[in-house]
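mind reviewing both lines:
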Amino acid sequence: MSEEKEALLAMRGIGKRFPGVKALDGVDLTLHRGEVLALLGENGAGKSTLIKMLGGAHQPDEGTVILDGKPVTITSAKQAREAGMAVIYQEFNLVPEMTVRENLFLGRERTRWGVVDHAAESGLALEWLARLGLPIDPETRCGDLSVAQQQAVEIARALSFDARVLVMDEPSAVLTDQEVEKLFAIVRELKEQGIGVIYISHRLEEIDAIADRYLVLRDGQTVGEGVVAESSRDSLIELMVGRALEDEFPARSVTIGEERLRVENLRRGGRVRGVDLAVRSGEIVGMFGLVGAGRTEVLRLIAGADTREAGQIWIDGKELAARHPRESIEAGVCLLSEDRKSEGLVLGQSVVHNFGLPNLKRFSRGAVLEEKREREEFLGYAESLRLRISGPEQTARQLSGGNQQKVVLAKWLARHADVILFDEPTRGIDVGAKFEIYQLMNKLAADGKAIVMVSSELPEILGMSDRILVMREGRISGEVENGEGVTQEDVLALAMQEEAAA
């Protein structure tokens, strides 16, 4: 019992069942003051269920939660706050139209003589923001803040409730490298203040940089824990996926064929300024650049999602005059957007209906949808892609990131797309699911597809690309024929050419 008394937070023998599944089975977790504990595991391992218990959204069926040596019961978000627990989810709980001050005091406004005391609220808001070293004006609309600043406001709000345990769920998923460094500075400051942080991330390089200890869940059970500095990346991956990954990126041997996609002088405002590129059958072309370089914009122009001001596009030698996504889709071009939740899927709809959306014409006879045919074809793709679902009627919202990506891929494969544009294909996806996505991309290339892959992760660019195009300020600043001896520094130097020259 001594460990429970010394720990800031202890969870012992935690179990949780949902209909048809045991989400957690005898999980133990220990968090000390001023410590960052990395909570690791594949999607579906039980991480979200565990942290939702600390936030009051779920209650354990078995086990005990101990805070400062005393058992506590948390059945609501209000009780969680009162106990000193704060969970910052991937989707922020801020009202964009309200100011920073108004969001910080929402539901607990400071009043004087029945009127909101703006001055008192601003003073406290500045004090909370100062604890994090944040020079943000409390009267700024939250909708006008960057994602990193909004995240910082969420952290400040947690501190305003005197949070002693702070849970951060994939906090870096949508941050730039520079913003991640600022986030780490905030986390280190929280450690100095004695706050215990549970940090969930699929990016193992972040775990090395910020975490003290790790806890790994797999299939709802604890499978390993230890000190981060004493563990290797490979050992953590093996714990998470339950098997050794010989290589992080699967090897492939593909014959490169004829040109399938050609782009010349593609332009749109200041974001895309005269881009030329070509991709051949069986080829994976990686596209890298710093934030704002124009990579996503190029893919959207090719896919017809945005209107080009100039430039020509050819698919298999035939010019594509598409000014609308429908025309690009008809020509065999598909885009897997970086924001699959808002642009790639209808989250409230079933996975089979998401699959059928771009294929309605083929699955319909007149105005009647042949649901049996749609379902049968979907199940075929679900099996070949190893899609983990409870059934075709499961909603897309309920799937892990990796399985959501597979649903998006399935619907485009059913369209027989020949040019596939991947924008951040593994963002927010665990390491085991990443490997499966890489295998699928290799299979598509082997089937003769032409693939363009935008990624912010240099290891991914180097591990998956035949050639690498580097963008800077809306233009292609260089091209690298990938192979042995090519380093991250080689690619990054092209992305920062102008800054380096200055």
Notes: Residues 259-501 form a domain with the Rossmann fold fold (CATH 3.40.50.300). The longest helix spans residues 177-192. DSSP finds 20 helices and 24 strands in the chain. The chain has two domains: 2-241, 259-501.
